[in-house]
Design goal:
heterodimer, A: mainly alpha, Arc Repressor Mutant, subunit A, elongated, B: alpha/beta, Rossmann fold, 6-stranded mixed beta sheet, 4-stranded antiparallel beta sheet, 35% helix, 24% strand, globular
């Protein structure tokens, strides 16, 4: 869907799409060329993009792809829909705390270790933000706010451990 | 150990400032119950913990504002909790800088006079002090506000003035107690960015009390104060 969005902007070669995808969306995981062409072939088969004429020149990347009306409609619909909120009611964090309490292990020690790991990641993201690139900052902020939410849960859980131990034991 | 150093109670140490087994009570209420903390030169340390855990009390003990009931505070190996109030006051002026949650600027003074205050208290001539203060307005992006009084500044501007005041005398340690606590998220980030950049550039050690993980993430290491005791989440080797 992201590639469709990039094509909505302007007709592009596969190479341009990969470059723009990696710049904005693939910081930690660049898109393999194979996947770009496989996706374009699928979108083309489904009538969502149309390949142009083969352009003269060297190299395999000689087709410019254009989004079709069907593709535009699909992209527009996707863009308007909210993403499913993910409450993560059964996280690994939760399972570890409950199991530690159930088995008489130190849940507090686990929470401290987890807190340190979260803060270390937040430190890395904060450094990323400090590079003065707004796209990086936007991406890092998303991670920072989610980690912060986890940390608030960790703090609240740590404060409630004695009561939770009773609840798990009963 | 010479007689002179013995009298001053100086020890060789790898740490710039240390709290050793520090106990402090507010009347019947215990605030610190044997707190230990060692901070290396150039480190930016976040002191975290829930409200009422004793983190601000620990900062005030380290900075020589409060005197522990038991235990020791050492700065560059020298015990400072046993110094006279005059000597501690001199130490605070010469070696420590402070930033608090609400800026705490002197309302009768202009912004540049507020920044120059530590230099004036240290005996610098007024023109020289104001000239050095003005350099910080450009450095922290608040040029043009020099003549305003605190009532004419936004929260973020006032906190940047307070930061300039905390750093103008090039302290060895900057003590910052919830420096972004009264600011919105984006302004708080700006203040933290300026604080950390200035501290790193000048090699200033920072002790940062905060309950906000996003603020603590600017530090190189963090500790948690819980029930008057300090828990280190990680070793301090990263600071080396």
């Amino acid at each position: 869907m992201t590639l469709l969005g990039l094509l909505e902007r302007e007709p592009s070669h596969g190479y341009d799409l990969k470059r723009d995808y990696d710049t904005y969306f693939g910081r930690s995981k660049p898109l393999p060329f194979g996947q770009v062409y496989a996706t374009l072939a699928r979108l083309s088969r489904d009538g969502k993009v149309a390949p142009g004429e083969v352009e003269p020149g060297d190299g395999p990347d000689r087709k410019r792809y254009t989004i079709t009306d069907i593709g535009k409609l699909e992209f527009e619909t996707w863009l308007r829909e909210p993403v499913e909120p993910e409450p993560h009611l059964q996280t690994v964090l939760f399972a570890k705390v409950v199991l530690a309490l159930m088995l008489g292990r130190s849940a507090e020690q686990y929470l401290d270790t987890q807190r340190a790991a979260h803060l270390q990641r937040m430190r890395e993201l904060t450094e990323l933000k400090r590079r003065d690139n707004l796209i990086d900052a936007l991406l890092a902020d998303h991670g920072l706010f989610h980690l912060e939410a986890d940390l608030r849960w960790i703090d609240t859980t740590a404060a409630r451990l004695p009561y939770l131990a009773q609840a798990v034991a009963s | 150990m010479s007689i002179a150093t013995k009298a001053l109670d100086v020890q060789t140490t790898d740490y710039l400032i240390e709290a050793r087994e520090v106990v402090f009570d507010f009347g019947e209420t215990p605030a610190l119950r044997g707190a230990n903390l060692s901070i290396r030169e150039g480190e930016i340390l976040a002191v975290m913990g829930p409200s009422g855990s004793g983190k601000s009390t620990l900062l005030h003990c380290l900075a020589g504002i409060l005197t522990p009931k038991q235990g020791e505070i050492r700065f560059s190996g020298q015990r400072i909790d046993t110094l006279s109030e005059n000597k501690r006051s001199e130490l605070r002026r010469n070696s420590f800088g402070f930033v608090f949650q609400f800026g705490q600027l002197v309302p009768e003074l202009t912004a540049e006079e507020n920044v120059a205050l530590p230099l004036l208290l240290d005996g610098l001539r007024r023109n020289e002090a104001l000239s050095r203060a003005r350099e910080w307005f450009e450095r922290l992006g608040i040029e043009g506000l020099e003549r305003r009084r605190s009532g004419e500044l936004s929260g973020g501007q006032a906190q940047r003035v307070a930061l300039a005041r905390g750093l103008v005398a090039h302290p060895k340690i900057l003590f910052a107690d919830e420096p972004t606590g009264s600011l919105d998220s984006l302004t708080g980030e700006l203040v933290m960015e300026l604080l950390v950049s200035a501290a790193r550039q000048d090699g200033t050690t920072v002790v940062l009390v905060t309950h906000e993980p996003r603020v603590a993430a600017y530090a190189s290491r963090e500790v948690i104060v819980r029930d008057g005791l300090v828990t280190s989440l990680t070793s301090d080797t990263r600071a080396l």
